[in-house]
Amino acid sequence: VQLQASGGGLVQPGGSLRLSCSASGFIARNYAMAWHRQAPGKQRELVASITGGGATNYADSAKGRFTISRSNTENTMYLQMNSLKPEDTAVYYCNRWPSLPWGQGTQVTVSS
User: Fold this and answer.
1) Secondary structure of 2-62 in HEC code, one letter for each residue
2) Minimal CB count within 10 Å: which of 13, 53, 84, 92?
3) 43-46: which pairs have CB atoms within 8 A and are 24 or more residues apart?
4) pLDDT of residue 90
């Protein structure tokens, strides 16, 4: 049972990235899941969440720019990030409730 985040990279301010969170060993649609991020020197914070029924919620910093979604056929959760800012630079992690051990995450760097 694990989650694997991928899709990070280096992008210029104003650019876009789509992160993926692949679930294995369990059916992701049966759980509420979320994206979190941790910037250097800061605590991990919740970015966006999605319930088993598809209801979504976003941190104020993500509203209007990020979109969380899931593919039940692919057992995968996504985070579409648009209009990226340098302050979005962080390691992004995915998890569910009840939580699993945190994985390595995927690095997102927004810089010119």
Assistant:
1) EEEEECCEEECCCCCEEEEEEEECCCHHHCEEEEEEECCCCCCEEEEEECCCCCEEECCCC
2) 53
3) 44/93
4) 98
- Residue 28 has phi, psi (to 5 degrees) of -60, -35
At 110, the amino acid letter reads: V
* C-alpha to C-alpha distance for 88 and 29, rounded to whole angstroms: 27
Which residues of the chain fall below pLDDT 70? none
> Could you give the strand order of the β-sheet that contains 106-110, starting from the edge strand earlier in sequence?
9-11, 106-110, 90-97, 32-38, 45-50, 56-58
Instruction: Read off the DSSP letter of residue 112.
Output: -
Q: Token match 């692919």: residue? A: 74
d(CA 104, CA 4): 8
Query: CA-CA distance, 89 to 17, in Å (whole number)?
Result: 12
Neighbouring CB atoms inside 10 A of 43's CB total 7
pLDDT of 45 reads 97
